Amino acid sequence: MPPTLASVVRNSALHLTVLAGADHLERPVRWVHTSELDDPTPFLEGGELLLTTGIKLGKSAAGLQAYIHRLADAGVVGLGLGVGLSHTEVPQALVDAAAQRGLPLLRVPEATPFIAISKAVSAALAAEQYEAVTTSFEAQEELTRAALGKDGTTAVVRRLAARLGGWAALYDGSGALSAVAPDWAARRAGRLAAEVDRLRRRPAPSSAALQGRSGTIDTADEDYVVVQSLGADRRPRGFLAVGTEDRITPTERYVLNAAVALLTLTLERSRELREAEERMGAALLRMVLAGEVATARQVAAGLFGGLPEGTIRVLVAAASPGPEAAEALGELGDRAEQAGGKVGEKLLVAREEGAHGPRLMVLAGDHGAAHRACLGAVEEQEGLSLGVSAPATLEEAGTAYAQAERALAVAQRGGRRAVDHEEVGAGSLLPLLGEEAVTAFAEGLLRPLREHDRTARGDLVASLRAWLSRHGQWDAAAADLGVHRHTLRYRMKRVEELLGRSLDDTDVRMELWLALRAGED
């Protein structure tokens, strides 16, 4: 802590006397400044102990009061008046004004040179800086040893909380609480979920400071809280929160920064190692998709502890075009890996550049933690689309991948967040197609018939619908319409003439039926 006015007054060698503001002597002194100007405020930054002999102050009560007001407004923490030169004693009007503003006023005897006060404060400031450096170095050593030991991240959180005399909490990249110290702080850390989520949506590193007593956070606790995202390449890998009774000091800030650096290195690891692991995981996934499951099992046993067992799903994700597409998919992959890692679930994740932009492939257990994390992520984040395969075995992963690709295509065309293969394989085809494309197709194909019906006799659109619904059976379709079969034959001949297409062609019938159904929807 920097020296305070109280510590300066307690220095017996200075022989200082407090004449006013005795209740405010705990203010920290950032510097000592000597000035004989009646307005020295342009040369002050705040936090100074100002020394003067009062040569230009005069004896006017109004002038002395104005002088005190200027100093207090400028953030001066105390005023020392040297007696024996301009003033034999400190003017009572100056004492009264200082007491009114709560500004500590010190009597400096003639025998005490101002330089002695400056040296005393400078020595205290130097001692504070030395202590800060020493404490920071010791804390860095302690935190580094903790990080290199067993349960490194948890140990760092525990030691950081002890160093700050408060509490500390670590969250993973998804915002879930992964470590907290002491244990009683878990509830306080849990209240920060909304703030952590806000930081999760901002590039790392970023931070936020919250004060409970000011009502910034919804809590009865009066902690001063700092939340910091952890990450070196804009993508948050985790979050660190600390809570203390008062604002952290500069020394404590150094300790916090050291913890942030260590945790970032631990969570981030090296870019080369992470990329190598991703390449190995992608290679394994492609081996599985190619049907080389036995070989993939042998390789994965040594590298990843094995492959997913039991029923699996393949998920394929894509992001809307733009510079943030790869980042969004990277975050999705991180969340899947973090969710699976927390419960010991095996999964494979691969990122690839497709013909239409970057893609993310995930092979994970059916409705496991990673599967659920992917579904949750695409619902939360704009611009992501996800296709999910049907449940399958590892040996059926190639087929599952094709299913996921088809489901993704449907999701992208329909503007949907996620589509399951079961939705593609069941129900009507129409909901799976892009609405605008179907509407344009239907309008273009049926336009000649609709124009005819508006200006001529005979309802060709209704007649065509009835004929197609009866699979070309003339008598049944004519009965539905309430007309003679010869009338219906004439109308169908007119349809062929207007469309320039033969109704004997199966493809033509299919396209016309699709257009009619789209018009109904």
UniProtKB/TrEMBL annotation:
Record's signal peptide: none
Q: Where is the Purine catabolism PurC-like domain?
A: 8-125
Coiled-coil spans in chain: none
InterPro entries registered for this protein in UniProt: CdaR-like_regulators, PucR_C-HTH_dom, PucR_C-HTH_sf, PucR_dom
Matching entries from Pfam families are given as: HTH_30, PucR
Which residue ranges does the record assign to the PucR C-terminal helix-turn-helix domain?
Answer: 460-518
Question: Per its record, how is this protein called by name?
Answer: Purine catabolism regulator
Q: Which organism is it from?
A: Kitasatospora paracochleata
